[in-house]
Inverse folding.
């Protein structure tokens, strides 16, 4: 569903809900994914929410993935949704979120702790 006008109420979708640049949604959205480039006020419960540059979102959101781009606005409460919680609602099995890789600095770069220790002993 793509909204470029004004909509007030409840939206239930098993796929994508997009609030276009000229779109305004006030109410509740339950969807697999929500993309906001316009204005949204209310409650959203989705697997993934993206607030793109120029998008404005206010309210309570619950999602497994939240992307807030530079130039966008979010005010409210954000809750991390577990895969189990989404499974209860949709009845579908979802893959676990991928782990964030830990990046180690190259060995030739001094760590802050190492520099502090050298200055205290030397």
């Amino acid at each position: 569903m793509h909204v470029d006008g004004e909509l007030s109420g409840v939206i239930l979708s098993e796929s994508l809900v997009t609030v276009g640049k000229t779109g305004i949604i006030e109410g509740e959205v339950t969807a697999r994914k929500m993309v906001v480039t316009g204005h949204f006020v209310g409650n959203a419960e989705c697997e993934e929410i993206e607030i793109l540059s120029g998008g404005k979102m206010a309210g309570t959101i619950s999602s497994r993935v939240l992307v807030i781009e530079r130039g966008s606005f979010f005010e409210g409460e954000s809750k991390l949704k577990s895969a189990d919680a989404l499974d209860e609602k949709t009845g579908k099995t979802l893959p676990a979120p991928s782990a964030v890789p830990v990046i180690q600095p190259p060995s030739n770069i001094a760590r802050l702790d190492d520099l502090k220790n050298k200055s205290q002993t030397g």
